[in-house]
Amino acid sequence: MDKFTKRMLKIFAVYVCGMLIFFILFSTVWRLDRAVSGSMEDTIKTGDLILGTRYGIEGEDIERYDILFFYPPDSPDELFVKRVIGLPGETIEVSGGCVYADGTELDDSFIRRPMNGRGDGIYVVPDGCYFFLGDNRNQSNDSRFWTEKYVPLENIVGKAKFIISPLKNCGNLDYIRN
Fold first, then answer.
1. The whole model's pTM is what?
2. What is the pLDDT averaged over residues 82-110?
């Protein structure tokens, strides 16, 4: 084999190995999804490309305000991305534009517009399940409006971590806890 052919084979081998590693990482560790609705605006805009993790989705690893990828019980073939508001065993009350967990008003600093009264009610989150709301609460198809209001742990497939595209929207999606 001549020098040029050997060099091309090495380049091809490196390319194939790189693609294999990339494929393995995105099928086991990372997720890449595009926001298809405005339910999380202004945090995540329609069309944003979101990088998330597939690991760390154990019940004890999920915290209030995490933004998660999941399949809602009412639409098991449609991937949603929304914010965890209610944890297993909690009573969530949505009333007068505010959200309460077990009687304590929750932080809504990520909400840009006042919430209307649609979906007001009291929701008791069963063990092993979570209650989700979109950040754009007036335009969000979330737990308040589903027939099956609560998402079981096994329907949660990843944590949204970063917006990677478009560049003007790039940023970390981790909630800053006080």
1. 0.85
2. 95
